[in-house]
């Protein structure tokens, strides 16, 4: 299957769970900046907060990027931190 399958699967997941890609929906983005932020939050939640059945944990925790799966509250805290 190779790498291309993983990229296509990721694109399908993002399109399926993020309604901002539906042109005629109520959740579409009027500004590109808003669209980018919404997609970034979705990808972060998918990788840091959502426990995947095949892994038994989050992908970030499985790769040891975090010590534990994050909650949505932790994700929001990390996303709103101001750089020093």
Notes on the protein architecture:
The protein has 84 residues and is mostly helical. The chain has one domain (2-79). It contains 4 helices and no strands. The radius of gyration is 15 Å and the shape is globular. The mean pLDDT is 82.
Short description:
With 84 residues, the protein is an all-alpha fold.
Task: List the main descriptive attributes of the protein structure presented here.
single chain; 84 residues; mainly alpha; 4 helices; 54% helix
What is the topological layout?
Elements: H1 2-17, H2 32-48, H3 59-62, H4 72-79
Order of helix and strand elements from N to C terminus: HHHH
Average pLDDT level: 82
The strand count comes to 0
Shape: globular
As a percent range, the share of helical residues equals 40-55%
Largest sheet properties: none
